[in-house]
Write a structure and sequence with these properties.
This protein is α/β, with parallel strands linked by helices. It folds into three domains: about 70 residues, Histidine-containing Protein, Chain: A (2-Layer Sandwich); about 90 residues, no CATH class; about 70 residues, Histidine-containing Protein, Chain: A (2-Layer Sandwich), CATH 3.30.1340. The chain contains six helices and 13 strands. β6 and β7 form a beta hairpin. α1 runs antiparallel to α2 and α4 packs parallel to α5. The longest helix is centred in the first third of the chain and has 15 residues. The protein is globular.
């Protein structure tokens, strides 16, 4: 077996062993060219996507990853509908009340809201084949992360590319991840955030407490996985119906 085939097989074996990745239901094509591994396909959720990329990058001899993974949406929608839904959520959230918002479609920018000079930033978003791209700049990593979660919540989205810049730059901290996750869980209409405890260590989020259903347990975990920069989620939530 040549080294290229060996790497491809190792990546496939790791993906097959990961319980959050179902290659039978959601096949992933794996190609390797000179140590650069390309992953292509549609996976079940954001957790499966992030884990697949992390596992592939962990294989010895892999020098880079090309990400062409998409996430199966809860419903299939056109780009215009996806864009409109994201616009509504951004406009409604208090955290972005003083943020300039623009949508980009067909090489045309539309300003949805103009903020004051001391606002929290400028967010420009576009949707192409269900892939949401966030660009612009915000004043904190918390704003970047929260905007990314809203994009992941958008019905019909197939992927989120969060390219928002943070200015001025500053060191990322675990306590900031915990803080914004608290805001996310409070904003999630499907969860009771008061029953969920959380912590973050070295970008690993730990969830504890109780929820009423297995669906809520999985929802809280996916909310954590949706945060930019989170590398792992340990879900210790108990279901108490």
């Amino acid at each position: 077996m040549n080294p290229r085939e060996a790497i491809t097989r190792q990546v496939h074996a790791l993906l097959e062993r990961e319980s959050r990745i179902n290659l039978h239901r959601h096949p992933v094509a794996i190609r390797n060219v000179n140590g650069v591994v390309l992953l292509e396909g549609e996976v079940a959720d954001v957790a499966a996507k992030k884990l697949a990329l992390k596992l592939a990058a962990s294989v010895a001899g892999v020098d880079g990853i090309v990400d062409r993974l998409r996430v199966a949406p809860g419903e299939r929608r056109g780009d215009g509908a996806v864009r409109d839904s994201l616009a509504r959520m951004l406009l409604e959230q208090p955290e972005f009340r003083n943020c300039t918002l623009r949508s980009y479609t067909n090489q045309r920018r539309e300003t949805l809201r103009s903020a004051q000079a001391d606002g929290v930033g400028e967010i420009e978003f576009s949707v192409t084949e269900g892939v949401i791209v966030l660009e612009g700049q915000v004043i904190s990593l918390s704003h970047k992360r929260f905007a990314g979660v809203l994009a992941w919540w958008t019905p019909g989205r197939r992927d989120v590319l969060n390219s928002l810049e943070v200015k001025p730059e500053y060191e990322d901290r675990d306590d900031e991840v915990t803080e914004v996750l608290g805001l996310v869980l409070e904003a999630d209409p499907l969860l009771d955030a008061a029953q969920i405890g959380m912590a973050c260590r070295d970008k690993t989020v730990i969830l504890e407490g109780s929820v009423r259903t297995e669906q809520q347990k999985q929802r809280a975990e996916l909310d954590a996985w949706s945060l930019f920069g989170v590398a792992r989620v340990i879900n210790r939530l108990q279901v108490t119906d």
